[in-house]
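Subject: sequence -> structure tokens, single chain

Hey, anyone have a minute? Need the predicted structure for the following. Not urgent.
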Amino acid sequence: MAEGDRRPDLAAMLGGLMRRLMAAEAPVLEEHGLSMWGYVVLSALDDGPVRTQAALARAIGADKTRIIGTLDKLQDAGLISREPDPADRRVRVLAITAEGRARRRSAQKQIQAHEDELLAGLSDEDRAAFLRAARALGE
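Reply:
Had a minute. Here:
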């Protein structure tokens, strides 16, 4: 790479953006009575029930022992259910409740409204390219 072609590492470039996004999300999540991990769990369950806590932990990139407290809080708040699997009573199927779905979607709507304000500084073409790239690299 030539001297003039140097660029910061991706983590350095995206770190400031991530801090800015998380700082904007924090009050929205608090307003909705959600932690960041709670929001992540509800988002994963909004796609459909998950058969085990271990499967959920893998899906969201968390240690299964780390999310137990989050699951307890979400269940106590009526945002998720953990029901015995009819095929194997030792297993708990995790699902989002109607209240959990409504709360998550309301929070997401506010979060994405802020993101839209942030992305408004980009041309339509750059915005579409950025969103495509973020989706592709995030998978």
